[in-house]
């Protein structure tokens, strides 16, 4: 079974005015939908980044995959490497949600095609995708309620207010959490921080702990806090959070913070490739890694990451940025087949409006979180 056609379709879907350390989500999130069609007429689906640099890479690689066997993932890796070597590098720049960082372009592009090729392999074998990853070790995959400070609407006059409303105070965030739990059944909570004064954000965690006793809590300032702020926050957060995600920026700073506070630190920012992991282990900088198959190089490399985390005694969770159902299902299959997934996964999916989902049947339902 060989690849006969590859379609890469850029899409944009509405994104609420969610706040993070970089500023605010734009009115539309960009993604790419990848369809890999075989000479037998079967189609495998994938979803990846949709910014200009990512799209250019995907559109360059796609046609060169025609004729490749769907089982030839090493061939895919070779085509990606050869194609990207002939493209101008994307513009440099740091991104909070890894997208077109030049250092990850190959891993991003490979992942976008690996998922539909594995999808095709599973369809041909008549098994769920998780069976190709070793089989499910859990029947249900837990996700956390992902809370954001946010405005009621985007500034553009043509953009109407979204259904979630404003959330700029601890009480409003507690209400947001309650609504998300009522709708989806989530049993753990994550707060995106690094946007308001740290005292307000810490007070929000304290309010969440009072409102939802027993719920695991986590906070993520996206590396925006100084060492002094992070240490002061740690003293108030101790006993309230299950992990402290990216409070400061850089491996060295994370290692120092862990030495000075003893709190378990998690990251999706300072450990985003295997070389980072090697360095982090040597420094004891990070105790929990948030995987993400989109930029770790696909589902199989994410399994390799899981194995390394098990080897070094690190916890494992899963990162998310704005995505649709194809990514969500790939995340769920990977999580189902990962024995040492020690924390509930992140997902932005509740923030997607029903009308913007592209899969048949509409949005994927959550049951019990």
From TrEMBL:
Pathway: Carbohydrate acid metabolism; D-glucarate degradation; 2,5-dioxopentanoate from D-glucarate: step 1/2. It catalyses: D-glucarate = 5-dehydro-4-deoxy-D-glucarate + H2O. Its EC number is 4.2.1.40. It is an enzyme of class 4 (lyase). This is glucarate dehydratase. It comes from the Bacteria. InterPro entries: DgoD-like, Enolase-like_C_sf, Enolase-like_N, Enolase_C-like, Mandelate_racemase_C, Mandelate_racemase_N_dom. One of its GO terms (molecular function) is glucarate dehydratase activity. SMART domains: MR_MLE. Residues 170-264 form the Mandelate racemase/muconate lactonizing enzyme C-terminal domain.
């Amino acid at each position: 079974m060989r690849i006969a056609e590859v379609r890469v379709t850029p899409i944009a879907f509405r994104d609420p005015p969610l706040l993070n350390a970089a500023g605010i989500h734009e009115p539309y999130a960009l993604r790419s939908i990848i369809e890999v069609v075989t000479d037998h007429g079967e189609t495998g689906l994938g979803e990846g980044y949709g910014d200009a640099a990512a799209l250019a890479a995907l559109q360059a690689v796609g046609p060169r995959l025609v004729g490749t066997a769907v089982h030839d993932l090493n061939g895919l890796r070779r085509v990606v490497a050869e194609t990207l070597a002939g493209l101008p590098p994307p513009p440099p720049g740091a991104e909070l949600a890894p997208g077109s960082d030049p250092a990850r372009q190959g891993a991003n592009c490979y992942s976008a095609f690996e998922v539909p090729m594995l999808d095709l392999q599973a369809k041909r074998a008549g098994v769920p995708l998780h069976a190709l990853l070793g089989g499910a070790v859990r029947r249900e995959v837990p996700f956390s309620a992902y809370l954001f400070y946010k405005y009621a609407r985007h500034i553009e006059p043509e953009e109407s207010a979204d259904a979630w409303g404003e959330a700029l105070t601890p009480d409003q965030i507690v209400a947001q959490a309650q609504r998300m739990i009522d709708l989806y059944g989530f049993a753990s909570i994550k707060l995106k921080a690094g946007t308001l004064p740290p005292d307000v954000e810490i007070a929000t965690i304290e309010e969440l702990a009072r409102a939802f006793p027993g719920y695991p809590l986590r906070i993520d300032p996206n590396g925006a806090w100084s060492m002094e702020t992070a240490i002061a926050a740690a003293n108030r957060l101790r006993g309230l959070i299950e992990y402290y995600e990216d409070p400061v920026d850089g491996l060295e700073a994370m290692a120092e913070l862990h030495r000075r506070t003893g709190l378990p630190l998690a990251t999706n920012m300072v450990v985003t490739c295997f070389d980072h992991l090697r360095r982090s282990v040597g420094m004891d900088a990070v105790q929990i890694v948030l995987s993400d198959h989109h930029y770790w190089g696909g589902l199989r490399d994410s399994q390799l990451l899981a194995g390394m985390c098990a080897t070094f005694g690190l916890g494992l969770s899963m990162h998310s940025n704005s995505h649709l159902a194809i990514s969500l299902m790939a995340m769920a299959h990977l999580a189902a087949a990962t024995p040492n997934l020690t924390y509930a996964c992140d997902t932005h999916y509740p923030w997607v409006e029903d009308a913007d989902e592209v899969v048949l049947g509409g949005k994927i339902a959550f049951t019990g979180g």
